[in-house]
Write a structure and sequence with these properties.
heterodimer; A: globular; B: alpha+beta; Uridine Diphospho-n-acetylenolpyruvylglucosamine Reductase, domain 3; 16 strands; about 35% helix; binds flavin-adenine dinucleotide
Chain lengths: ~250, ~450
């Protein structure tokens, strides 16, 4: 079985995001970029399935500008067999990303697509679901546990534990399917430095976005960006009585 | 409170909190060393400068010795009270007093934990850069009294570099305001610098004004596995010349075994005798390429066998834990600690002599090496075999420390790089400081604390 993994590059989780003064976006110049944390988890899960013998090939996919090569090499160093880079300088909205994956799915015929439940830049939480619909295959979102054995994989079945509002939900899906990862699914491995050197020999297919024949139908329009309001200073109270009085005054008690 | 001296203290300072219960005497009477039996007279926890002055004046009146006390994470017995002293704990003086954006300084009370200082700086968009594993418990006053170093010295220097001003209560109870945060002040002796590293023997630090600085650019953390000791300083020289280092720390396979047993996450497979955790600026891909190129070069030279790179802050923390978790993972083995330094240029020769010396003298003990190798600072911890009595173990270690001190002297090094002399290293001060220097120290002490009430018996007799 082949697994396709969404592997998006985003502004690093630890960077303090700054909005451009004119409100047209956030500052990305000179800012550290890393793999979307949920995508690291997706890749880790795919690698574990390959190590278990369930999968035979793991392919990382990124959509974005020409300078994504170093990012994809990290995915290859972590253990992916090869990478696909769909090249575009334009911002990619969830529906467009899902359509790109649909094209790649047609070409690659994977048994499983694993993506993050969301990317931490736009927090859209849509691409995996949209892909499942376009592809007309089952989806198991917010996965915190994925059970596929060599036998069940051959039978075309995966058991997935999902994180839902009420707690955990266990579902069985027929493969091929789309799984999106939640934070507790696994702890991604460290990248070994020698593997970064070896990854230079692994193939990266580049595909021009235009050649896929997809219309980048941008339904979402961003009017402007703004920083969240600064938290106002707290009020210090002397004791419990004062606290209760303050809460009552605010109508909270 | 049967002791009339304590009764008079309580009378003079009615609001002062005093502890006399045995559990509290034990808790506040010792630091991380476990060699001395705590036996203080009592524990005082003042909340104001005036109360500290009152305690010092009372001590002068009654001839009671005082032990200034912070977070008691000290590793040299500096905050131990084993002879009926009054422990003067700054624990309850732990507030931020002010931030000055023009000066970029933070003024705090001396009992504030290091981590709280770091967080207060961060809230202003700046950093207080001194950092090490005891951050959650140690106090800024204790950092100042020991001129603490830590894991960022390579970039930022020791505590000394960051002290803009101090308020200190001297041995006679007088309050001194030292340097008042001036950047330039060419007006004679700088007592602020004298107080830094004085281990509680010249005055009680009650407030400190700290310089803050800009946060560093985004960084990357690597773990490197090295095949032999000589590779350590080769890799250090290479990385320092090609990257902008924030930290360069080393440990051995023995240390790794202990932190892993203590719950840290393994990052590399295979057996390697030496490891380095290094952190460097990596704002863009160019810097990351430079780091990889340096790694490749070191591999070609045979200086590095394997390595891992953190992909996230969580992974960076996991790599750091391998280094920072060592001290805690050893605590149960009652380690005998050495904290020594030589010039960076003298490290390779010194390491070889140390390896030969320790191999010869400690054939049966487990010896754990780690430390701030990029600063020429090495921690050598000797673990006590479970079946050996404490006193016998220490006696054997003391014998080796004499030899170690002689080696250090030959290399112009120091018997205490960052932990202080306290009680533990007192017999060896002469290996690092000349007789004339020690005589001057005594003279200085006499001036600040004429009755010798501040931390007597520490640093020198
Ligand atoms: C896990 C661990 C890791 C460590 N790592 C490092 C490291 O990397 N680098 C390093 O330098 N140290 C390290 N240390 C040692 C220790 O944390 C530092 O020496 C620290 O600065 C001590 O601060 P404290 O508040 O605990 O001081 P204490 O132990 O309470 O006191 C230390 C000395 O300072 C004096 N003192 C304390 N407060 C005052 C005051 N307000 N006025 C005057 N004198 C005072 C005491 O009398 C004593 O002599 C480590 C310790 C641990 C347990
Ligand atoms: C045009 C001009 C511009 C200046 N600009 C500055 C400036 O920008 N910043 C600044 O800080 N200063 C400045 N100065 C002042 C002066 O140059 C400095 O103070 C300088 O450091 C003095 O050095 P010196 O060798 O001339 O010392 P001297 O004038 O010879 O002596 C100065 C003091 O140092 C003592 N001293 C000298 N040598 C020793 C020694 N080896 N051991 C112990 N004590 C010693 C002397 O006893 C005396 O107390 C300036 C002076 C001039 C004329």
């Amino acid at each position: 079985m082949k697994i396709l993994v969404g592997y998006k590059r985003v502004v690093d989780y630890n960077v303090r995001i700054q909005v451009k003064p004119d409100g047209t976006g956030v500052v990305t110049d000179g800012v550290k970029l890393s793999a979307n944390p949920f995508d690291d988890i997706a890749l880790e899960e795919a690698l574990r399935l390959r190590e278990k013998g369930v999968a035979t090939e793991v392919v990382v996919v990124a959509i974005g500008p020409a300078d994504l090569t170093a990012h994809l090499r990290n995915g290859l160093a972590m253990g992916a067999n090869r990478a696909i880079h769909v090249v575009t300088d334009a911002a990619v909205q969830p529906l467009t990303a899902a359509r790109v994956f649909q094209r790649l799915v047609e070409k690659e015929q994977p048994g499983l697509v694993i993506t993050g439940k969301q990317a931490i830049d736009d927090d859209a939480n849509q691409t995996g679901q949209m892909l499942a619909t376009l592809w007309d295959r089952p989806q198991a979102t917010f996965a915190s546990k994925v059970d596929i054995s060599v036998e069940s994989g051959a039978d075309g079945k995966a058991t997935v534990t999902r994180e839902v509002d009420a707690g955990l939900e266990v579902i069985e899906v027929e493969l091929p399917a789309v799984i999106t990862t939640d934070l507790r699914l696994n702890e991604p491995r460290f990248i070994k430095l020698p593997d970064i050197m070896k990854a230079k020999a692994k193939p990266i297919d580049t595909i021009e976005f235009a050649s896929l024949g997809i219309e980048a139908n941008d339904h979402l329009k961003t009017t402007h960006y703004a920083a969240p309001p600064k938290r106002s200073r707290g009020v210090m109270v002397k004791d419990a009585t004062e606290l209760v009085a303050a809460l009552k005054q605010k109508g909270l008690l | 409170m049967t002791d009339p001296r304590l009764a008079s203290l309580a009378e003079q300072l009615p609001g002062l909190r005093l502890f006399t219960a045995p559990a509290e005497l034990e808790h506040y009477g010792r630091d991380w060393t476990r060699r001395w039996t705590p036996a203080p007279l009592a524990v005082a926890l003042p909340t104001s400068v005036e109360e500290v002055q009152g305690i010092v004046r009372w001590a002068n009146e009654h001839g009671v010795a005082l032990v200034p006390s912070g977070g008691r994470t000290g590793l040299s017995g500096g905050a131990v009270a084993a002879n009926g002293e009054l422990v003067l704990s700054l624990e309850r003086m732990n507030r931020v007093l002010g931030f000055d954006p023009a000066d970029r300084t933070l003024t705090v009370e001396a009992g504030m934990p290091l981590q709280a200082v770091q967080e207060a700086a961060k809230a202003q968009g700046l950093i207080y850069p001194v950092d090490f594993a005891a951050r959650g418990s140690c106090s800024i006053g204790g950092n100042i009294a020991t001129n603490a170093g830590g894991i960022r010295v390579i970039r930022y220097g020791n505590t000394r570099e960051w002290i803009a001003g101090l308020k200190v209560v001297a041995g006679n109870g007088e309050l001194l305001e030292l340097n008042r945060a001036l950047v330039k002040n060419s007006s004679g002796y700088d007592f602020r610098q004298l107080l830094i590293g004085s281990e509680g023997t010249l005055g009680v630090v009650v407030e400190a004004t700290l310089r803050l600085t800009d946060p560093p650019p985004p960084s990357q953390v690597m773990l490197l596995a090295l095949p032999h000791m000589d590779a350590l300083m080769e890799v250090f020289a290479l990385f320092r010349s090609r990257l902008s280092l924030q930290a360069f720390e080393f440990f051995t396979d023995v240390a790794l075994r202990h932190v892993l047993a203590h719950g840290a996450q393994r990052a590399l497979d295979g057996e390697h005798p030496y490891y380095v955790v290094t952190e460097f600026d990596a704002a863009d891909e160019r810097a990351q390429e430079a780091a990889l190129a340096a790694f490749e070069h070191a591999v070609e030279q045979g200086w590095i066998e394997d390595g891992a790179i953190a992909q996230s802050e969580a992974q960076a923390a996991a790599l750091w834990r391998l280094r920072e978790g060592i001290t805690e993972s050893l605590a149960a083995h009652k380690p005998y600690k050495n904290d020594v330094s030589v010039r960076i240029g003298a490290v390779p020769a010194f390491l070889h002599e140390m390896q030969a010396l320790l191999g010869r003298e400690y054939p049966h003990f487990e010896v754990v090496w780690f430390g701030h190798i990029g600063d020429g600072n090495l921690h050598i911890n000797v673990l006590k075999p479970a079946d050996l009595a404490d006193a016998d173990f220490i006696a054997q270690c003391e014998h080796v420390t004499k030899l170690l001190a002689a080696t250090l002297k030959a290399h112009g090094g120091s018997i205490s790089a960052e932990h202080g002399i306290g009680l533990v290293k007192k017999p060896y001060l002469g290996s690092t400081r000349s007789e004339a220097e020690v005589a001057l120290m005594r003279g200085v002490r006499q001036v600040f604390d004429p009755k010798g009430l501040l931390n007597p018996g520490k640093l020198f007799d």
